[in-house]
Design a protein that fits this description.
It is globular and about 70 Å long. It is α/β, with parallel strands linked by helices and 309 residues long. The chain is built from 10 helices and 12 strands. The termini are far apart. Helix 4 runs parallel beside helix 5 and helix 5 runs parallel beside helix 6. About 4% of the residues have low confidence. It has one domain: TIM Barrel. It binds iron/sulfur cluster (2 copies). The site of one iron/sulfur cluster has 13 residues, from loops.
């Protein structure tokens, strides 16, 4: 009797852990350590195995613009290839966040991102909207460090307790270094916490074109891909990664299984089911558009030398 109960319990936990089969559970914990977020053992357990009653997102990118002043080869968000560009307004972001968090208990970590978020003219109000959302526990803004924000924006960042996450691109040369230094000095002046994400090498997932992988190959790709934990929220739809978001927005991949349309969710139960499905899929149709064995390329190599750096 006891053994049966134990077996049932183990099988239940494994099925819950399956929610996060898309990324290594060990990496998930390392990921949080990297961001200096201390989680208790109970919180780690919930993050890995999920919760019977709560809807928890470990990490979500909140897209606020598809504009960027750089054109990086193999940008994970495919920003150089966007056909129609857009800055989201604070009202749109508020509406989108309300929908996302209506039946969500916690977003452990939300990242304001683009494109380049410092280009968005409504950034000050957007930060205030995100900071006011009680379901978001940690707020961060990711920048390429090439734009100097106004003092008003810096104040909003400080008031919103936002950590600035700097993607540091050493290959961009001495003018980039000057801008990076100036930005860091400003952040320090405003006592804004910041951290660097410094990668010399990026993975080259190849051109955006369809390959013809088998389902088995797609399963392997999703499990192994380091981008598979980069959940992206754009215009009321949640996607599994930047590439999936780009492809769906350009009508190239239309599977409804690997995204969540927040406007279709009308109860907590529906949200729980949608999140379970979202995190349990074995393969992502978008992976058909990536190289199965990506090679390394220099970080932030530019497609054309037409940026102002
Ligand atoms: S800085 Fe480069 S990697 Fe970042 S969004 Fe712009 S084009 Fe993409
Ligand atoms: S589409 Fe698949 S392989 Fe490509 S970045 Fe997303 S998860 Fe990785």
């Amino acid at each position: 009797m006891l053994r049966k109960k134990l077996e049932k319990q183990i099988s239940y936990l494994l099925s819950r852990a399956g929610r996060f089969s898309y990324y290594s559970r060990i990496r998930a914990l390392g990921f949080y350590k990297e961001r200096r977020i201390r989680l208790s053992a109970a919180e780690k357990w919930k993050l890995i195995f999920g919760s019977r009653s709560e809807v928890i997102f470990p990490f979500i990118d909140i897209d606020i613009t598809t504009y960027c002043n750089l054109r990086c080869k193999r940008c994970a968000k495919c920003i150089p290839y966007f056909e129609h560009r857009k800055h989201y307004t604070a009202e749109e972001i508020e509406q989108n966040l309300d929908l996302l968090t209506r039946y969500t208990d916690r977003i452990c970590f939300a990242n304001i991102i683009g494109g380049e978020p410092l280009l968005n003219p409504d950034l000050k109000r957007i930060i205030a909207v995100c900071a006011a959302n009680k379901k978001i526990e940690h707020l961060e803004l990711t920048t390429n460090a090439t734009i100097m924000p106004d003092d008003d924006v810096l104040k909003a960042i400080k008031d919103g307790a936002v950590t600035v996450h700097i993607s540091e691109y050493e290959n961009l040369g001495p003018r980039y270094e000057e801008r990076l230094k100036a930005l860091v000095e400003k952040l320090e002046k405003f006592e804004i916490p910041y951290e660097y994400q410094f990668h010399k090498i990026w993975l080259d997932f190849g051109e955006i074109e369809k390959r013809w992988y088998t389902e088995k190959e797609l399963d392997r790709m999703l499990i192994r891909c380091p981008m598979n934990s980069c959940t992206v929220y754009n215009n009321k739809v949640l996607y599994r990664c930047g590439k999936a978001s780009y492809l769906a927005q350009h009508g190239m991949v239309t599977s409804e299984d690997d995204l969540i349309r927040m406007e279709d969710i009308s109860s907590k139960e529906e949200m729980r089911k949608a999140v379970k499905r979202f995190f349990s899929i074995k393969h992502l149709p978008a992976c058909q558009y990536c190289e199965a064995h990506p090679k390394g390329i220099p970080a932030a190599e530019q497609l054309e030398k037409d940026n102002d750096l």
